[in-house]
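Notebook entry, structure prediction.
Reason for the run: the old model in the group folder had no record of what sequence produced it. Starting over properly, with the input documented here first.
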Amino acid sequence: MKKIVAALDGLKYSRSTRDYAIFLAKMHKAHLVGVFLEDFTYTSYKIYDLVHAKGGLIGSARKRLDQKDVKERAIARQNFESACQKAGLEYTVHRDRSIAIQELLQESIYADLIILDIRETLTHYPEKAPTSFVRDLLSQAQCPVLIVPPIFKKTEKVILLYDGSPSSVHAIKMFSYTLPALKNCKVEILSVRPHSESRHIPENKLMKEFIKRHFPNGTFTVLNGFADLEIVKYLKMQKDAPMVVLGAYRRGMVSRWFKESMADTIMKEVRLPLFIAHNK
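New structure, fully documented this time:
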């Protein structure tokens, strides 16, 4: 039995994370852990709210707002537990109360998969995707991460991105091992080659031999052009909300300042579930 972690903020509860986690845990008969990130530095209110509230900065206003946060977080946990019970899942709830990213990275050491909403920030302020929190998790997680869109859609198709690199093959392997039940979906292997090259995939013979063992019904699609542009364009054309599998975040921080990863580009342009795994 595998262990799937749903990373959740009780103050901005993601029903999409809950629904994807339950869908996959039920399909794979996995143990589902709801990790509620209750970072002690994070509240729903800002200092501005205290200054302009009755009771003053150190008065009853802070106590009232803290109690509201406690209630919100309890409601979120109860919602998660009720949904797990209704689905007939074996589940656990963790309340991680230290620094959120550190707690989640520690959880990743002992998990097979982490599921996280693409909008997650664990701050007061909204950020454009990919958020700082998502970036930090992807760059340091010790297990694959599934980044999910705001609205749940049942997965009926999987697109495996392959560019011939070891990291792309590693991501496909991890997907095969972690979520084997999704092999029953329609599976497509997508590659992009420069205009000057043929439409044969890199390491053609070896890759097809590998795919035949893991995804016997998988089909290959090869496009010509610039990968960043062609992949985003192709994904935007999809009507069935496929899950996209890719390797990412292997480069160092300095390198990422100058060139975004493919995952960054996809998260900015497309709202699809992204299964991301990288070898260290």
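Summary: The longest strand covers residues 186-193.
The old model has been moved to the deprecated folder.
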